[in-house]
Fold:
Amino acid sequence: MRARSIRTTGAVAATAALVVAASACSSPDGNKGGSATSAVVGIAYEPETLSPLLGYGKDGNSKIFDGLLTHDADMKLKPALAAKLPKVGDGGTTYTYELRKGVKFSDGKPFTAKDVVFTYETILDKKTNNASKTELDAVKSVEAKGDDTVVFHLKYPYAPFAERTVLPIAPEHVAGEQDVNSGAFTTKPIGTGPYELVKWSKGEKLVFKANPDYWGGAPKIKNFTMAIVKDDDLRATRLRTGDLDGAILPPNLAGTFKSDADKKTYAAKTFDYRVVTLPTGNKVAGDTAVRRALDVGVDRKTMVDSILEGAGKEAYGPVPTDSPWFTKGTERKFDVTRAKQILDDAGWKPGKGGVREKDGVQAKFPLWYLSGDKLRQDHALAYASDAKKLGIKVEVQSGTWEVIEPRMPKDAVLAGGGSPADPDFDQYTLLKSSLAGDGFNNMAHYDNPKVDKALEEARRSGDHAKRQAAYDTVQRELVKNPGYTFLTHIDHLYVVDKSYGDLTTQVEPHDHGLASGPWWNVEDWQPKK
Amino acid sequence: MTRSLPWGPMARLVGRRAAFAVPVLLAVTFGVFAVAEASPFDPVKAYAGTAGLTASQENLDQLRANLGVDKPLVSRWWDWLTAALHGDLGDSSTLRQPVADAIGERIGWSVLLATTAFVLAILVGSALGVLAARRPGGWLDRCVTSLAYTLEAAPPFWLGLLAVWLFALHLGVLPAGGLTDTSSVAVTAGQVSRHLVLPAAVLAVSQLPWFVLYVRQGVGDALGDDPVRGARARGLAERTVLLKHAFRSGMLPVLTLVGSRVPELITGALLVETVFSWPGIAAATVQAATSVDFPLLAALTALATVAVLLGNLLADLLYGLADPRVGFDG
Structure:
């Protein structure tokens, strides 16, 4: 009987396998891309949580939620859950928001000032595991006045504070009842936003449906799906088969859709820079002459053309050259002769093996990049090869952040960053001397009293002209003493089906998750033609 | 001919193995905590992700305290163990949800994928192995054997990309990934089975060579044994000789293989799930490891250990049933 029981099991299994195979043949991929009022996009990144209390959607465009304010296509602030832009008082330390009336969460409960207070207080609570709470450092307290007014009291005048209030608002009556760090709300969110979450199949996709009662009008795209496809090639393939309507792609794969008449490529402008930190604690990289020589002696244009295949721009500072905050005239001309002259004048004389020397110190330093990051690797190698032509030996090495972090005070790092909403957001943490070595802030331990002063003025002053002048000072100081060599600003490329018509992209930050791309405003898209 | 199964000895074997599993599980979970502790990965950095690159040190220190990863190794393991014995597997820091929920919503799909692939590998592998063993050195044998060696060397990740390129892009007959059509919300059996074909086939193909080669060897040897020669001498049909005599005794080593392939199957499934965006436990496992997410990592490791122990138990039970000389003493 044993033999028979084994055989029976085998037969059952074989039948099961056959059924699977047969059903595979009977219905080949029929329903491609879905109907005209649906959109399916492929993204490379999956959020860990959908709870704003833990950091989801902090820069806006969260689909499920709204902030008090939001950004339009030109990154200008406009009211969302607030009825208008905030009133700033008490020398820039109080921000008063009047709230939009009649807004409801998707479970039908009304949105009030209490939800706003709950959201901000919970994020700032020590027990909440939110890694971005440093961004709200300026907030002293949040106060509800009645149901429709919220007042933020700040510890110090902070001009860009309104930009932080794009942060999504969570419902107190749902999220307040649960463990903030692991409650069901982190995976089954409820918000006031244009879409409701239907299903989050982890590792596979996020499915949204339009919120019919959205205060901004029900979206025309009724079903919106974000498929999580981590592999670039596979994402391109699924876009090609029609499974996806749009996807984010690296330049080489986006290029393969150039001749596709049904697809359109969007290159989003960004603040996403790649930079080499030149730590003050390193005898070579911390030397002003070496810093200046590298600043004019690296060929940024070639990096843009070869590494980014043209999808990007040369970077001379954290602010991209096409931003209104950019200081005209601080572009560095690529000039090897001048770079060599700077080194000669400073006493860095050619030594053994083409490496310069000064006072017995060889002009060499290590440069780390995050292992597995091809883009950073390419930048690091290009940088090292340009530096070699100047007589500076840059030893490129790779490692994880755990390996790199303890070395940051002495070794150079190929880093990335960039935040378009306000120049304060990345410049203050990147350049302020008091933040040197604080976590990943000011990785180069840059220390320039003039820059410190200008950064402080710029964040406290509510006057645009004064802020502009302060950031001009910062950018000019970076020419005189470049503690970082900024290399490129990278465009983010998206390929989308043409039938959705002409779409737009915002100026994007370094950290571009599901909020970025042409689908930043999918609620305003028109159905497929 | 009818003989009831030896329930008593079988139950005793299961009991012994269950008792043995307790120290193994304790050792494995403690080992995982220790290895994770010694790894260069930092749970706080992993939790914070890119936000951690702009977070202040104070913020990061607070996170470290909240996540409880500043406690010493042994007390962390003990806390986890005592809570787990009371049915509380803890909260996963990377996934921001209770470990039981995290595993519960993923494990089913992984089991479906792995089981389908395993059954497929055993069936197809055995069939090919028997065919190859029938004429050792014949053209079929040479094809099958060299194919098996080639596949043995091919990484599942690469096989997956190749399969997607061929079946999804070139021929357009099968979906390239996901559990259901990307635009659909409902999970229907029809859609799942269609989406299962490629990942299960790739996983099965990656496991196939071992079965092919084992069966070929086993059946090949059995064909030269006395009982088979005796059967042939009695003039039994070739088919009967091959399937009833040679195959049955040739299958014995394969049963051992069933148990020992389980760890490989789990590893293979991890890669295949990643390629095909299959919503199984794979991504969570990799994330748990690189993020040093102790509760999730310990639970998953315990689960994998149980799977391996069960695989071995199953193999031993089947072996005992198929070959009474071996018995259930192990």
Remarks:
- Chain A has a mean pLDDT of 90.
